[in-house]
Amino acid sequence: MASEENFDTGDAGASQTYPQQCSSLRKNGYVLLKQRPCKIVDMSTSKTGKHGHAKVHLVGLDLFNGKKYEDICPSTHNMEVPNVKRKDYLLIDIDANNYLTLLEDDGAIKDDLNLPTTDIGKEISDKHKSDQALVLTVLSAMGEEQVVSYKLDNNK
Prior knowledge:
By secondary structure, this protein is mainly β. It has two domains: about 15-80, SH3 type barrels (Roll); about 85-150, CATH 2.40.50.140. It contains one helix and eleven strands, in the order E-E-E-E-E-E-E-E-E-H-E-E. A five-stranded antiparallel sheet has the order 9-8-7-10-11, with helices on one face. A four-stranded antiparallel sheet has the order 2-3-4-5, with no helix packed on it. Strand 4 (about 55-60) and strand 5 (about 70-75) form a beta hairpin. One of its GO terms (biological process) is positive regulation of translational elongation. Pfam families: eIF-5a, IF5A-like_N.
């Protein structure tokens, strides 16, 4: 007899990261530094040393809190790269607790994101109060999501 299996917490099998050789990383790309998803803002490669490996010095900014992280890795070694997704949503409402109500393209409602506490959050709030239709861009990586930009919805 086959045993019953529980798939309640399964996902599509997509990993949160994938390996990539350090020498093939590029500025403005993404990398995991100190276990945080970062955008590479600067990188430099040193010459091959007496042990045969050129070293790559990476500087990245955390995608969600803006902190700066640095790391040095041999150019032939693999580093983890986060799977980063961008998605646009139409802003419907902002509730009293600063939770956003967003509309997806397929008509589904997303209501589990907070308004950012940065300047962009204040701009979104001000424009929403003045009844301007906004499209918010949400970045997601490593199980975190955050609104990173917005634009006026010209369809309304």
